[in-house]
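User: I'm putting together a small comparison set for a docking exercise, and I want a reference complex before I start. The sequence is below, and the ligand is magnesium ion. Could you produce the 3D structure with the ligand included, as structure tokens?
Assistant: Of course. I'll restate your input first, then give the structure tokens for the complex.
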Amino acid sequence: MFKTGYISVVGKPNAGKSTLVNQLVGFKVAITTPKPQTTRFNIKGIITTETSQMIFTDTPGIHKPKNKLGEYMMKGVANSINCVDVIIYMVDATKPRIDTTSEKIMEDMIATKSKVILAINKIDKVEKSKILTIMSEYNSYMESIGGKFCEIIPISIYKQDGLDVLVQNIEKYLPEGERIYSEDEITDISEKDIIEEIIREKALNNLEEEVPHGIIVEVEKFKKRKNIEKKSVYDIDVNIICEKTSHKAIIIGKEGAMLKKIGTEARREIEHMLEDKVNLKLWVKVRQNWQESDIYLNNIKNKMN
Ligand SMILES: Nc1nc2c(ncn2[C@@H]2O[C@H](COP(=O)(O)OP(=O)(O)OP(=O)(O)O)[C@@H](O)[C@H]2O)c(=O)[nH]1
Ligand SMILES: [Mg+2]
């Protein structure tokens, strides 16, 4: 009996949602960084095995929106839990505090009537006794609001601990059905989007505080050509849009050193992905309040489902 179903991965920022989807798909469909609010829109990660097709949606971390960008991100999370078979609610074992404001989503999860699995990630970093406390606290909280986790599974994605159990349990709750995507389809994110996300990842990793959270990356030109040696080269021109002139100076860095570093790291990864040489040009532009502007947010808005 072949099973096919939809699984949404939701939770607080930085819990490891994107790391999980990448690990299960076996390909980096979503960027991951040590900073919260890395993911900005919903991304599908599809896994097809001999017995099932699991269609995951990785979602932005739940937070109180401070601008239109945040509102769209949270709309994405809310949409992602509708009409799915399983919701994985992921928490970070190193930050186990139940915070009823951000955990409000748990009430919405109960209302969907989907199966909810609590995945407690990063158990490589905490003592066993602490894991038991987290399990019981979340269990009690869920019961106090009238819901129930169908499974509670401690995992460490780093150590590949508990992932088999997680997958077996997801499969258990999927309905019987033919696959929806062909076997070689693993994501819905386009090459252009992946390139933008890779550059944003390098910016998040290299820049401090609010600067990288205030950028949006846009590919302006993406063209393949043959160079004089008849080898393929991609010409990729990219705008990094930031909020303030002072941020622009930080992103460019002393004598352009920061932009060069971000560009070099991104180019290497993009070349690996495209399996060809890449000529990457980055331009930094200032657009005040872009986080409130639909002109810049349309791409994110279109990826809320
Ligand atoms: N120690 C430890 N760290 C992990 C594990 N899984 C993920 N991480 C790290 O946790 C950080 C956050 O991971 P992400 O996958 O970006 O988290 P996320 O939930 O997608 O975050 P947002 O997109 O901001 O909501 C990264 O630095 C990961 O490398 C794990 O099993 N153990
Ligand atoms: Mg993420």
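The longest strand covers residues 216-226. The chain has a mean pLDDT of 96.
User: Thanks, that's exactly what I needed.
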